[in-house]
Amino acid sequence: MTLHSWVAAVRIARRDAWRSKGRSSLVLAMIALPILGVSAADLTLRSAELSTEQKLERSLGAADARMSGTGMGGVPIYQDPPGLSSMPVGNFDDEPWPEGATDIRAAIPPGAKSLRDSNGTGKIRTKHGLLTTDIRELDGNDPMAKGIMVLDRGRFPKKAGEVAATTRFLESSGLHVGSKVTARGLDTEFRIVGAYELPDALGTDEINAPPGTFLSPLDKGLAADGLPDTGSSSSYLVSVGGDGFTWNMVKEANTKGVQVVSRAVSLDPPADSDVPLYQEDGWSNFEESTAAKAAALAAVGTVVGLAMLEICLLAGPAFAVGARRSRRQLGLVGANGGDRRHIRAIVLSGGLVIGVAAAVVGTVLGLLLTFALQPVLEGYMGKRFGSFDIRPLELLGIALLAVLTGVLAAIVPAITASRQTVLASLTGRRGVRRSSRVLPVIGLIAAGLGVAITLYGAVGTESVLVVAGGSALAELGVVALTPALVGLFGRTGRWLPLSPRLALRDAVRNRGRTAPAVAAVLAAVAGTVAVATYAASQDAQQRAEYRAQLPHGAVSVIVGEAGGRDVQAVRAAVQKNLSVDVRADVDRVLVGKATCSPYSTEKGCGRHEIVVPKAKQCPLWGVENVEQQFSVAERRKLAADWRCKEPTHYAEHEVVVAGPELLQALAIADPASARALKDGRAVSFDRRTVEQGKVGIRLITDQEKADRAAEEGKDAPGEIKSFAVHQAPETVLSYGVKLIVPPAAAKSAGLSTVALGAYFSTEQQPSSEQKQKLEGALDQIGTEAGLHIEEGFTSDNSIVLLALTVFAGLVTIGAAGIATGLAQTDAEPDLKTLAAVGAPPRVRRTLSGFQCGVVAAMGVVLGSAAGVLPAIGLRLTDRREQLKWHQEALDNGWGSVGPEPYVPIVVPWETLAALLIAVPVGAALLAALVTRSRTAVARRAAG
After folding, report:
1. pLDDT tens per residue, range 27-36
2. Measured over all CA atoms, what is the biggest interatomic distance in the chain, rounded to whole angstroms?
3. What are the DSSP E strand ranges found in 591-734?
4. Choice between 239 and 316, residue whose per-residue pLDDT is larger
């Protein structure tokens, strides 16, 4: 064909598209919506992707470098060029890395300008209570800080008593510029004089004060109140001028234990051979491998290909509708000398016109939508865009996908239209065409091969990609088999009433329009069923593996802050806001200063542990080279030994000081244990720790010596406190608590204790309103309280399954509606004949509904069957991986290994019922409602 022929074909196609605005708009929307989404995603990701200069501006401001300590006591270090990783110089394979403060100022080059940037954390009083807030001391008025903090309104603080706050802090606290704030532990009031934002962390609650005016006074106040300090640390912004902070200067700072982020080095990094860190064993300049990039590209290509296939299957029948309605016009083209090439060109040009329009509309709307929603997108991502980055070539490629999709969707209708004779086109005769015999054979081979690959991937390999590839091939094979399967469905028509029998016969006789719609429904439903089956199976596994922390409906609240000063207020808040039946107050054993938190490693703080007698210790504990000392059979045997078994439940504090009320709160119905606590004896729930009716608690005051002793396989040094103990039956479930010491026994043994929290049993499951009130009360107290309300296993997949069902339903109704529209176009002469011979008006409406329902039902049935395969393959892969890990754990003698993994395959019957029954019935009813009952009787075409 010549260029002029194509121009004429495009003009005819454009005119037809304009005349049939409804059909054109439908196809355009189907193609344009994915283009809109992809183009908007491309713009968003590219705009949020910062250049190196933009990243440096947000971290360094206008400085040349940021120098920070590594906490290694100032020993020389090696670092990578970006300043993200470092290690001490020397061999520390058999000893821990050095620890200690680093003198950063000593490493600042002579003559350089520096600006201190200090950070800590504190609790700020707000309108709602206490808010954990980042506290910063950085002079925002210094030119070097420009870009790190972006002023929104007001000004940066200039003197003591002034602070600026992030806009997020003002939103969270209910305060505003001009308000006064105080911090817990410090009586001084600070006035908020400005609001700013951190471009890379929009969701951060932070206040900024002039250097030396907030953190140091707050630390003194916290120390006086016996509370933990702010944990402040400092770095320095440095400006050296000239060529900037070079790599040689970075290495010089490394010799003093200082890590550097340099602007000059980041923009022009040294060769890997010049980086000492990369020469060390186990360190290199890690980059994503070519294989990983290829796998990611293949995954993206597969998703894009399947999406295009779905759109083509949906849009193809719509183009066929247009071709059928324009068949007289196409017949006139043939009558005036046009051949099959011209007919194909006109129909293909329809796809081209719609594709170009969809590309333009989708791309433009994607641009406008991204621009309009930029603040929302930035808030969701938590950072500002670097710039509104438009990549013309990428957008052009996305637009070309729309054009390609439109043309591909029109190929089959174009071929079908070109095969009609001129006489059939002019007279409206449909003719009879036999289905292809090759396509079903190809589909059967592809489906069988896909099933085989999927099963091989699930049973013979550990590759999810093999399973996914086999499943995709099997689904494509079923799509190719769809025309033949539609024919098989037709054999059920003999048992159906008149209207559904006519609808099914029409669908079978016109497989060219039925099969694409059924295949589109099949693809959407198959994906939904696959995800739903996998999610339902995971839910069943997680439900079986779930370990409750408490009895159902019970509540625990643990206060980890030092001193336990707010514990009594927290206990009272829980009891006030919930329907409490039994309250059991618990304390913890304190080793060291009263201000020590439970797991603190600070100087003057210790820890405690339950003593396990030598005879009851697992033989595998503390043994080096277990593989050499024990055979695999011995390790497997020891894994089942009761001494090596680990508990199935975990509690943050295994040893608690409490009375018999705790047994009631934990639903432990053991009268002997209750009597023991009342008599002043401890109760143990771990038989390994009991020897001759006694249990010991070791008080470790020097944690460094204890750690070294553990590395050498020795007992930790420390005083052991012994208690008379009652061993609870093994069947008792203590939810991770291993030892309960009554308060009287702890006092008589000389143990120091501090309030920890409480356990509660409730009269009824706490409601959402009660939980909200309780959380508000705890916020008012302002302490870090670990609240847990045992609600049992809850699934997070219900919303996902509902969304998938709705999506599949919409696709099903859309595809069935398109097929019904085409069927009505084909059956118009028959419907007029029925009306002429006296058929009631409802026949037309009923037939339309059944035509839509038949397409939906066939697609849903086939899709449901096809969707189960990938889910089964993935679950078998999961089972293989988990069984492998289980066997390795047994071979290594790990006592924490449980029974053989339970990896079920569960069919989501609720989702399938909605798809198999509700969706086809809904599609049929909708089609019947929107179809007109009456039509004008017209003369049938002659011939």
Report:
1. 787 778 778 8
2. 112
3. 607-610, 655-657, 682-684, 694-700, 719-727
4. 239
